[in-house]
Write a structure and sequence with these properties.
Strand content: 15-25%
Structural class: alpha/beta
Bound molecules: magnesium ion, zinc ion
CATH class of one domain: Alpha Beta
CATH topology of one domain: Alkaline Phosphatase, subunit A
Number of strands: 14
Distance between the termini: 66 Å
Radius of gyration: 23 Å
Order of helices and strands: HEHEHHEHHEHHEEHEHHEEEEEEEH
CATH architecture of one domain: 3-Layer(aba) Sandwich
Helix content: 25-40%
CATH superfamily of one domain: Alkaline Phosphatase, subunit A
Strand order of the largest sheet: 5-6-4-3-7-1-8-13-2-14
Largest sheet: 10 strands, mixed
């Protein structure tokens, strides 16, 4: 009797093994990725071209977190009035999708204000954040919040922060808020009245901060620009963590948009100082690694890493080894070479290919479903 049905039992056994193998694992890591990301983290390495990345990688033992990004693209960085962009026009292209003239923030070629992705995110109820290793009113972060035709109008840019409800910002530039020359206002105090928790490097260190997510958050890391990493600045990793802990809690319903800038890769290029570039590149990559870790666990976060332009015409010359780079520079300004784009998470595939810098904006909007 049993022998008669044995082939049937064998088949049943094989079929159920197959069913078990096909049952999808529970971990969100392996589920089909959601169509739209809830959160977008845009990471801008100012002045970060391919040589800056190469140098950072070699001097970091031939490895970077950037290597684990599955999608890579290239963007054309030129501005509205110059083949060589500056950081203001470059960041305006990312923030608002328009090519404008060098020096302009959040306005088009006719100096008409253009809406930024951060403002769009705010309107749609996402939590928003800006963070930099420069002053927070410096060109790159400013392009996401300010609408002024002149990037060095730092006190005017600080005023633009008052017109928004940005949830989180962190960077240098305390004096443009608290010790202003052009008017008698104290924006530090005004921010508190507006419902912000405000603090700064003189008051408490970042590691002492107890996050209170019921209030908006502003922290100033320096009076003007923070020092280079080689002179002791070390907050980017900790601050990035603070930002996503904060925004993740605040954006529980709708998600968040966060821009993180590694600002001083550019300044190493302007100084034609290879060690400065390398240390800033490695500092930025460490924060990239931390954001990747968050995105992998979260499963609903799109990370885009790119530069606004290359700085220095930086080259790694013959005779170099991985430990000892013989650097060359063609200029102390910016250059016009193509800039790589790295993407991870839901919507990352949109960033493959070859496109204008303004497409970073439209691709982020498309990914978010805006
Ligand atoms: Mg910058
Ligand atoms: Zn520059």
């Amino acid at each position: 009797m049993i022998a008669k049905y044995l082939p049937f039992f064998v088949l049943l056994f094989l079929w159920s093994c197959n069913q078990m193998a096909q049952t999808p694992p529970r971990s969100s890591e392996h589920n089909a990725p959601p169509k739209h990301p809830r959160n977008v983290i845009l990471m801008i390495g100012d002045g970060m071209g391919l040589t800056q990345i190469s140098a950072g990688m070699y001097r970091n033992g031939n490895k970077l977190h950037l290597e684990s990004f599955p999608v890579i693209g290239l963007h054309k960085a030129y501005s509205g009035d110059n083949l060589i962009t500056d950081s203001a026009a470059g960041a305006t292209a990312f923030a608002s999708g328009v090519k404008t003239f060098n020096g302009a923030l959040g306005v088009n070629m006719d100096t008409v204000p253009v809406r930024t992705i951060l403002e769009e995110a705010e309107t749609r109820g996402l939590a928003t954040g800006l963070m930099s290793t420069a002053s927070i009113v410096h060109a790159t972060p400013a392009a996401f919040i300010a609408h002024v035709p002149y990037r060095e109008a730092y006190e005017a840019i600080a005023l633009e922060f008052m017109k928004t409800d940005i949830d989180f910002f962190l960077g240098g530039g305390l004096k443009y808020f608290a010790r202003r020359q052009t008017d008698q206002r104290n924006l530090y105090v005004e921010l508190q009245k507006k419902g912000y928790y405000t603090s700064d490097y003189l008051r408490e260190s970042l590691s002492e901060i107890k996050l209170n997510t019921s209030k908006n958050f502003a922290y100033f890391t320096a009076e003007e620009d923070p020092p280079p990493a080689i002179k002791g600045r070390n907050y980017l990793l900790l601050a990035s963590h603070l930002a996503i802990d904060f925004l993740h809690a605040r954006g529980r319903d709708k998600g968040f948009f966060l821009m993180i800038e590694g600002a001083q890769i550019d300044w190493g290029g302007h100084d034609n100082n290879s060690d400065y570039i390398v240390s800033e590149m490695i500092d930025f990559d460490r924060a990239i690694g931390e954001m990747l870790k968050f995105a992998r666990e979260d499963g609903e976060t799109l990370i885009i890493v790119t530069g606004d332009h290359e700085t220095g015409g930086y080259a790694i010359n013959p005779g170099s080894t991985m430990d000892t780079l013989i650097a060359g520079f063609t200029t102390d300004g910016h250059t016009a070479s193509l800039i790589p784009v790295f993407a991870y998470g839901p919507g990352a595939e949109l960033f493959a290919g070859f496109y204008e810098n303004t497409a970073i904006y439209s691709k982020m909007k498309q990914a978010l479903g805006f």
